[in-house]
Specification:
alpha+beta, 434 Repressor (Amino-terminal Domain), 6 helices, elongated, binds zinc ion
Amino acid sequence: MGKVMGRVTKKEKCNQCGHAATVTRGDYRFDEMGLPVVLRKVEIIQCSECGTTEPVIPHMNGLMDTLALAVVCQPYRLQGDELRFLRTYAGKSAKEFAALVHLDNTTLSKMENGERVIGPQTDKLVRLLVLNMSPELSGKVGEFIAMMSDIDDDPRGDPPRISINPATMHYQYA
Ligand SMILES: [Zn+2]
């Protein structure tokens, strides 16, 4: 499903069928985490036998942490799929999370499905909560608070696409 650009670097076995597969390095659209993320300069295994295309991700947990940090620090209002991603990243069920932020279950569900706009205060509460609940990200709270007042409260029509280089864990918004 990913769009692949890059050059062939070596051959490897397909994880799905064991056939010899081509490995390229390039950008890969990775939607498996529930958000439109682009992984930059990753190795991509492409199997011509079974059609499998998959990126090589050495540090999946670190990638999740980086994506969560990028979403928390984005200078735009959170959208539904971003809220759902952050809640899932924090390991909370919809019911648990709704109770934490004092929303009823239906309202939270509508927000996550994009049927209801996430209010600017709920947005900030969610970000602070998720940062604090993550052992990997809780040290970034001060950094986040420093940029909090610069977050644009106008909902964006297009969600920002986040790109991450998994080798350096640098992220940027497109
Ligand atoms: Zn295959």
